[in-house]
Amino acid sequence: MNYSLQLEKGHQPVTEDCGRIFNGNGSLLPGITIDKYHDSLLIQYFSSDYCEEIGVICKSSLDLFSKFYPISSIWYKDRTILKHVKSMAEKRESIHYWGSEDRFIQVRHNGCICTVDLVSGQNPGIFMDMREIRNCLTEYYPQVDSLVNLFCYTSLFSVHALANGVSKAVNVDTSKQVLLRSQENYRNNNLVVDSRDFIHEDSGRYLKRMYKRKETCDLVFYDPPTFSRNKKFHYSVKSDYRNHLDLISTISNRYVLTAINSYSVSKDEYLSYHPRSWEMLFFKNEARDFLNPHDPYLKCALWQVNN
Ligand SMILES: C[S@@+](CC[C@H](N)C(=O)[O-])C[C@H]1O[C@@H](n2cnc3c(N)ncnc32)[C@H](O)[C@@H]1O
Question: 104-137 burial by CB neighbour count: b if 16+ within 10 A, else e?
Answer without folding.
Answer: ebebebbebbbbbbbbebeebbbbbbbbbbbeeb
